[in-house]
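User: I'm new to structure prediction. If I give you an amino acid sequence, what do you actually give back? Let's try with this one:
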Amino acid sequence: LAYVLKKAHERGLTVHAWVNVYFIWASEKPPRASHHLYNRHPNWIDTNGNNDESSYNDENEKMGEGYFLAPHHPEVQKHLLAVFRELTALYDLDGLHLDYIRFHDTEYGNNEYAKSYYNKNIITLDWNNYRRAAITNLVKETKQMLMDVRPDCKLSAAVKPNLLLAKNRFFQEWDMWLAAGYLDWAIPMNYTQNLRDFASNIDIMYENLPRKYRHKIMMGIALYNQPPLDAIDKINYSEITRFRGISIFSYNVFKENAGYSRDLLRTQ
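Assistant: Good question. You get back a string of structure tokens that encode the predicted 3D arrangement of the chain. For your 268 residues, that looks like this:
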């Protein structure tokens, strides 16, 4: 990382460290390595209502993403903050980018510790607000840590593009993060192929996010699932809506298909 930063800064490039926050394992079977976080701290892993750790294993045999840490376990939060602090204290990063800063899905959150804490405070706690607050607190504390350790380091997050779904299904209230100043910008992963769906997600942002915060949104556009002409339509639409800019996902498309970038530039 130090080498990358040195070479990038020599060329006038900025480098933001991308971190998967709560998502720790993507395979169907859990990791075997004893040093993996899954095995060192099994009580940190989140579960759903059936006590499944991964949605690979649910009764519908739904193919899920894998294994997630429990956002509302206090030791999880301490660990993640320590990792973020180490990264930003030791390396001259221009930014820290949070991915998977959310719950696995709506049925998750049944980690044993977190569920026990909630049950003891059930009179004063709302279950969904409890889950939302856990994630928001990490974003807030991360921003506060950056202000102490590296104030010029930007904080951004990849977020679900449907703002209402993000808040109510994944407990990711990213509009509040922008309004409170916890994020410098958000990158909605508006990766749909369908332009109408793409525009619909933006309509929801317009309807629910005050205008003064729109400059903090950088629209995420996928390349891996659509031809250059379709991607160009979404780039142009994003420019019309006057957000901060665009974020193309992902570089692998350019790496594996050099012709894609030429086609993209040719149609601009």
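You can read the tokens as a compact description of the fold. Here is one thing that stands out. The chain has a mean pLDDT of 94.
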